[in-house]
């Protein structure tokens, strides 16, 4: 399979015009090629294993750049062609797909509001097109089991990057390497460096190992924070949900000493409003300081959940600072609605606004908020729904890409939180936050059930983003290579309960073993009063395996999935010492020594 580069395509808007596609042919990829693509100049320089590129606005007016792609066709690619699709954010699914057989979920949904949450680019794909965010693996029919090409952007903090695979009209297979800038404004003469793209032809290692090598390079270049110690904790969400009360929290705290928790984390449900994180609601008579002190007295690190970039329409933060809210893409001055959750109230049927992380006052606010939470005693911040600044809208500074807007929000939180605070990203565009977070959720939410029925799909095409243990399993195996290369993986909570659950013991242990072998965070989210000594003993086993896996990951050998390209949901996760093989349809598995 050879990459034959043929053109550069830019989607650019000059004032008041929808983005238009401009195309410039290139005759392959030489050491230095400069092409004019509409108002842009794109400079490409090929390397042995990839390309570096930049773009500049050569016109005399500002332009808005949606995306710039370099397009190649795949010579000698025999069908069926497999693509490892890596998801954009924590909850976006990852796994292998076959060109011409599988489809992008946006084809069925056709709903930009949802597509903008789960992909870098909210637009629907072209018919039959497959896409992968940040990195990908391609393997054709002729390839032996380990023969593949791994491709990845060299970073992700300046802009997103999407690989798009499609059958072109001339019957050739095209690969688009798309730098996604989200409509960023470039002043006349302004130049931007883009993240380079690297690729290698591999024949003797698994796709998972190739991705691990890519992640290692990216992590090193971006100064990944992956030193945080192996951690075990408790989280209030998966039993109590948003109905959690102070009584629930204190009742669990009272028995937590019998458990090996280092972290004790309050999730969604304490806050006065989405956006008003320092005040508790009526279910929590105590203030945040008092709650943190109560946790700290038990010798654990207090943790707290917040969705720092969202705000409810009727929150104090929006009422006092309406100018801190980003505006909708339409020019009518409406606030930008980026998420919907009726359980949060908010006065507009559950629609939530995005705070404008290009506004200096918003960044000061976020920094101050993090500082206040840390001084209240919280040393673990779970930052959720953090895709919120990435969605299409009108921003105070139109010169920031979606990736830069997300990153700026995280950096502000980090400034306020200090270096010692453990920052976990959730619902997070993964590529944007390397080097600023300590840990990231790398899958969909777990749930007290294994899999959902197709009839339970909320948005057509997007069943896999809904809470389900099977989806969490799929993501944890597919993204295992990231652990301690880019951050610490958070696979989501183990499920120790044996009552009020539709997970049978073999499904629950398949998931627990997966969490353990991943080497990532081990969080318990059961009501501790409802789980007995078996659960307590089971956690010790999970933690022992987890520490062993994590030790290997710290030495540069994260767990890997040898059959990443073989099944839609890979079955196997291996470490130096162990191997977990699951039957994902039967929800059963065996964990054995190697
Ligand atoms: C709190 C929860 C927990 C959980 C997070 C996140 O698509 N959805 O409607 C959707 C709802 C909730 C959700 C993810 C997706 O969960 O992952 O751990 O903190 O928020 O609200």
Q: What does this molecule look like?
A:
The protein is of the alpha+beta class. 23% of the residues lie in helices and 29% in strands. It is built from 12 helices and 31 strands. The strands form 6 sheets. Strands 3, 4, 5, 7, 8, 10, 11, 14 and 15 form a 9-stranded antiparallel sheet that branches. Strands 27-26-25-24-20-17-16-28 form an 8-stranded parallel sheet. The protein has a 6-stranded antiparallel sheet with strand order 2-1-6-13-12-9, with no helix packed on it. A hairpin with a 5-residue loop joins strand 1 and strand 2. Helix 8 runs parallel beside helix 9. The longest helix is centred in the C-terminal third of the chain and has 22 residues. The radius of gyration is 23 Å and the shape is globular. The mean pLDDT is 97. The chain binds 4-nitrophenyl alpha-D-galactopyranoside.
Overall structural class, as computed from helix and strand content, comes to alpha+beta
Distance between the termini: 34 Å
Bound molecules: 4-nitrophenyl alpha-D-galactopyranoside
Share in helix: 10-25%
Unreliable segments of 5+ consecutive residues: none
How many beta-strand elements? 31
**Rg value:** 23 Å
Q: Report the total helices.
A: 12
What's the helix and strand layout?
Layout: E1 2-14, E2 20-25, E3 33-37, E4 40-47, E5 50-57, E6 63-75, E7 82-85, E8 95-98, H1 105-109, H2 112-118, E9 130-133, E10 135-139, E11 148-153, E12 160-167, E13 173-186, E14 191-193, E15 197-202, H3 207-222, E16 232-235, H4 237-240, H5 246-255, E17 263-266, E18 271-273, E19 276-280, H6 288-297, E20 301-306, E21 310-311, H7 316-320, E22 337-340, E23 351-354, H8 360-376, E24 380-383, H9 402-417, E25 422-425, E26 439-441, H10 469-478, E27 488-490, H11 505-518, E28 522-524, H12 533-554, E29 572-574, E30 578-583, E31 588-593
Parallel strand pairs: 16-17, 16-28, 17-20, 20-24, 24-25, 25-26, 26-27
Antiparallel strand pairs: 1-2, 1-6, 3-4, 4-5, 5-14, 5-15, 6-13, 7-8, 7-10, 9-12, 10-11, 11-15, 12-13, 18-19, 21-23, 22-23, 29-30, 30-31
Helix pairs in contact: 8-9, 10-11, 11-12
4-nitrophenyl alpha-D-galactopyranoside binds at residues 91, 237, 267-268, 305, 384, 426, 445.
């Amino acid at each position: 399979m050879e990459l034959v580069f043929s053109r550069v395509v830019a989607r650019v808007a000059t004032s008041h015009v929808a983005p238009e596609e401009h195309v410039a042919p290139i005759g392959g990829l030489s050491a230095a090629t400069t092409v004019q693509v509409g108002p842009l100049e794109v400079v490409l320089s090929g390397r042995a294993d990839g390309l570096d590129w930049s773009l500049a606005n050569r016109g005399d007016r500002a332009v808005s750049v949606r995306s710039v792609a370099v397009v190649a066709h795949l010579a000698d690619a025999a069908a069926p062609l497999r693509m490892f699709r890596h998801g954009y954010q924590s909850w976006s699914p990852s796994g292998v797909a076959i060109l011409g057989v599988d489809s992008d979920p946006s084809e069925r949904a056709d709903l930009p509001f949802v597509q903008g949450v789960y992909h870098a680019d909210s637009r629907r794909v072209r018919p039959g097109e497959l896409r992968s965010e940040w990195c990908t693996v391609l393997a054709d029919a002729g390839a032996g089991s380990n023969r593949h090409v791994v491709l990845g952007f060299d970073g992700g903090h300046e802009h997103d990057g999407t690989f798009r695979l499609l059958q072109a009209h001339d019957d050739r297979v095209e690969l688009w390497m798309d730098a996604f800038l989200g409509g960023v404004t470039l002043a006349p003469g302004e130049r931007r460096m883009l993240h380079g793209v690297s690729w290698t032809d591999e024949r003797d290692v698994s796709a998972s190992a190739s991705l691990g090598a890519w992640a290692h390079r990216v992590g090193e270049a971006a100064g990944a924070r992956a030193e945080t110690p192996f951690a075990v904790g408790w989280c209030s969400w998966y039993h109590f949900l948003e109905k959690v009360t102070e009584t629930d929290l204190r009742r669990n705290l009272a028995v937590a000493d019998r458990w090996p928790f280092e972290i004790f984390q309050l999730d969604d449900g304490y806050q006065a409003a989405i956006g008003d994180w320092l005040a508790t609601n009526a279910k929590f008579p105590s203030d945040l300081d008092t709650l943190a002190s109560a946790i700290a007295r038990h010798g654990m690190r207090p943790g707290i959940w917040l969705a720092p970039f969202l705000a409810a329409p009727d929150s104090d933060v929006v009422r006092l600072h309406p100018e801190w809210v980003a505006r909708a893409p339409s020019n009518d001055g409406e606030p930008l609605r980026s998420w919907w959750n009726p359980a949060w109230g908010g006065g507009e049927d559950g629609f939530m606004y995005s705070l404008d992380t290009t506004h200096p006052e918003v960044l000061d606010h976020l920094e101050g908020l993090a500082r206040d939470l840390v001084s209240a005693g919280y040393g673990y911040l779970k930052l959720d729904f953090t895709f919120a600044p990435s969605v299409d809208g009108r921003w105070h500074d139109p010169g920031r890409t979606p990736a830069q807007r997300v990153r700026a929000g995280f950096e502000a939180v980090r400034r306020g939180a200090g270096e010692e605070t453990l920052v976990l990203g959730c619902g997070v565009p993964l590529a944007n936050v390397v080097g600023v977070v300590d840990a990231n959720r790398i899958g969909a939410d777990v749930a007290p059930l294994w899999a959902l029925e197709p009839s339970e799909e909320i948005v057509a095409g997007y069943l896999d983003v809904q809470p389900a243990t099977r989806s969490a399993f799929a993501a944890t195996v597919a993204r295992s290579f990231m652990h301690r290369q880019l951050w610490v993986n958070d696979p989501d909570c183990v499920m120790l309960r044996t009552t009020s659950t539709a997970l049978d013991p073999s499904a629950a242990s398949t998931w627990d073993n997966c969490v353990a072998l991943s080497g990532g965070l081990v969080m318990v989210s059961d009501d501790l009063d409802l789980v007995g000594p078996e659960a307590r003993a089971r956690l010790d086993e999970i933690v022992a395996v987890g520490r062993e896996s994590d030790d290997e990951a710290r030495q540069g050998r994260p767990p890997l999935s040898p059959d990443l390209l073989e099944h839609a949901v890979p079955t196997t996760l291996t470490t130096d010492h162990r191997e977990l093989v699951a039957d994902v349809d039967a929800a059963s598995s065996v964990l054995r020594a190697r």
